[in-house]
UniProtKB/TrEMBL annotation:
InterPro entries tied to this protein: MFS_trans_sf (IPR036259)
Protein name per its UniProtKB record: MFS transporter
Entry annotated with the keyword Secreted: no
Keywords on record: Membrane, Transmembrane, Transmembrane helix
Domain of life: Bacteria
This protein's record includes keyword Membrane: yes
SUPFAM superfamilies named among the record's database cross-references: MFS general substrate transporter
Species name: Ligilactobacillus salivarius
Annotated transmembrane regions: 26-44, 56-78, 84-108
Gene3D superfamilies: MFS general substrate transporter like domains (1.20.1250.20)
């Protein structure tokens, strides 16, 4: 899911047209918002079965923090040009790629050390 969402963000950055924005936003909405929060929480609960409440709290706090910090960071990037909006999406692509890299590292560690 994350790879498809990151790819659609990259397409949106490379081809910033209204039609591409509509099509890629549908894909991003489906692949990024379609249960990915629940999957992440389930994985964390499997890593820390005795601390499910605490893990849920930390995970929910991190998600809420992104909703607060994202717009604040965006205001420093945005100015009065349309090109500045593309810079926000470039930052989003970078964060998505970083998330995919972390996910791959965790998957390798999971299989190597038999966590799950």
């Amino acid at each position: 899911y994350s790879i498809v969402a990151a790819a659609m963000l990259a397409v949106m950055v490379v081809h910033p047209t209204p039609t591409i924005a509509r099509l890629t936003s549908i894909a991003i909405g489906f692949f990024a918002a379609g249960g990915i929060w629940q999957v992440g929480l389930t994985i964390l609960s499997r890593y820390f079965p005795l601390e499910k409440g605490r893990v849920t709290g930390y995970y929910s706090f991190a998600a809420a923090l992104t909703y607060f910090v994202g717009p604040i960071v965006s205001t420093f990037i945005l100015d009065d040009t349309a090109a500045s909006l593309v810079h926000v999406f470039v930052l989003d692509v970078a964060v998505s790629v970083l998330g995919i890299i972390v996910m791959i590292i965790l998957a390798v560690r999971c299989f190597k050390y038999k966590f799950i």
